[in-house]
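Email to the structure team, subject: Malto-oligosyltrehalose trehalohydrolase model.

Hi all, the expression group asked for a predicted structure before they design truncation constructs. Nothing fancy, just the tokens so they can compare against earlier work. One-line instruction: predict Malto-oligosyltrehalose trehalohydrolase, return tokens.
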Amino acid sequence: MGFSVWAPAHERVRVRVDGRDHAMTAGDGGWWHSDATGADYAFLLGDSDEALPDPRSRWQPNGVHAASRVYDHSAFGWTDQAWTGRALPGAVVYELHIGTFTSAGTFDGAVERLDHLVDLGVTHVEVMPVNSFDGTAGWGYDGVLWGAVHEPYGGPDGFKRFVDACHARGLAVLLDVVYNHLGPSGAYLDRFGPYFAGSNDWGPGLNLDGEGSDEVRRYVVDNALGWLRDFHVDGLRLDAVHALVDRSALHVLEQLAVEVEALSAAVRRPLTLIAESDLNDAKLVTAREGGGYGLHAQWDDDLHHALHVALSGETFGYYPDFEGALGRTLREVFRHAGTWSSFRGRHHGRPVDRDRLPGHRFLAYLQNHDQVGNRATGDRLSATVSWRRQAVGAAIVLCSPYTPMIFMGEEWAASTPWQFFASFPDPELAEAVRTGRRREFGRHGWGESEVPDPIDPETVRRSTLRWDEVSSPGHRELFELYRALIALRRSRPELADPRLDRFVVREEGSVLVLHRGSLRVVCNLGDDTVVRLDVEAGEVLLASAEVEVGTGADGQAVDGQAVHLPADTFAIVERAAVTSPGRG
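Reply from the structure team: attached below.
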């Protein structure tokens, strides 16, 4: 077995195995090796007696400050040998957080709710970070040992059981990973070598292009490949890639795409890379043959912002530029595409070539963990708008050419908020997080007492889904609409058609109409409206309220075909070639 560690700056390294210290031998490139055997181990650098966990640890059963434990990936009994994976085109993604998805807050607890996701009709489960972080509860973005699964969730075997159970139900698993920074507690990487270079808004950043960066890049890529290979994960969501500072000719994202493509060929199943990026630059998802990085998709916050403003009417913070921009953003992918961003005080983004790039490379959503959890009180869209109005937004997302994503509980308008929380044991760090959060929102007009205490365990409890709501009035109706929309998207190919050059959006006032082949998705975000049709309207395939074809608001016949839509209603109509939506 033996142990190895990269520690190029040290002239002496020891490994403590099951309480006994062993000298390590220097090898090539700053690596140190020992043929010692045992279970629990940690490294001692130079003359220090402080034992540090392995930067490439696979298991941290006692937390991020304690010794690492040897873990044998081959010992797990997988049952997914027949699993051939799922490609992203045509997918419906569901984002969840293991710690608050169920009251158990574990992988095994989440497995008990997977049949709900199958019933809903989603294809991919996107799991927020499960790497080891200090404390028991947190979002996971403060991880410091990227290859070890958070023990309170169930550790590495627990995560494998979860992935195996997803595959047994036909669900692909996407894992959220964070390579742009490390958390504030337990980040010992810089003790070993030149891992860090500068910092960003969240913590120390990685040295991706300076002296010694070859091994640091290897650290990132090997970690990604490990999740895909050893945990059978089907794809990765790469957090905030705009914060990866890399001036190399071969950007680390492109390097990652190349190596993931090779692994995909080896394991004979599709492997997906999805970026979160603030750049509004489709170069990330442009094929390498076309001069891009070759990632498969990216989150599209502009679509979220335009939808949120249209549904809620909120125009503060970064929302002002999105007022009245829903139709344009749906058509053009980004609202900011080389245009002025008042929030940034500069021009931002670049246009998307809709003749070349398919819509499935951009994820669309009404909500996600950031857009809910980074509100001061973590209030969901359903706390602001009616479930009927949210259903109209869901119809726009699920009938668009983009890859739709649903945030856990959204599908039944969960009454529980999703708030920011952490559980750092260090009292000084905990207090710094608490006061920092309150001051941040205090600058935006919130009273400090209104901002939930992120360290209080009650904040986690409030943020945990209540599954008894799914069958209650109002919640059940919205769930059934989400399920029907997803089923229709899967049964009618034109609704999942990703070709942006064929996607037509027409709007007039509060009426929005999506042209999807022979189907029209007609949405009324205002008052009672009659949308006139220039040909005979066929069958209404799905509607969120009573919809009449060929009548006006008063129920009387109207010259020519028309669809009467009550306020906050959508209808999906076949062969309804809408040319000029307007009020009757």
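Residues 93-490 form a domain with the TIM Barrel fold (CATH 3.20.20.80). The mean pLDDT is 94. Ping us if the truncation boundaries need rechecking.
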